[in-house]
Structure formats: structure tokens, C-alpha cells
Amino acid sequence: MRDLPNLNGKELAKVNVGEQFLVLEEKPGWTKIKVSETVQGWVSSDYVQEVKVVIKVN
Asked: What is the pLDDT of residue 5?
């Protein structure tokens, strides 16, 4: 995960296959994710699979 949406961005952290994160923003080829309340960054969209979550409120 990087601080900028390109390969020149500083590497902030590593995320693992199968983990789920909130998507904050998308740019061509890059997806910005929220890892925790204080950590967010960009990952290559090639490694992102979108999962729809439906929340039912009674």
C-alpha cells in the first residue's frame, strides 16, 4: 500500500490476499483503501476485487 497512486509513492504497509477494506476513492489503475481509523493508502487495482455488502435495517 502506497501514499500516492503510483509506483513512486512511499510504501506504507503491506496488505494480505483475502483481507477486506473500505474503498475510499478510485483512480485509473489505483484504489484508495482504509486499513484502520488512522491508516489509508493506495493499492494497484489489479489486486482488488470488489465485494458488495448489503445491510438490511429493520
From this structure: 98
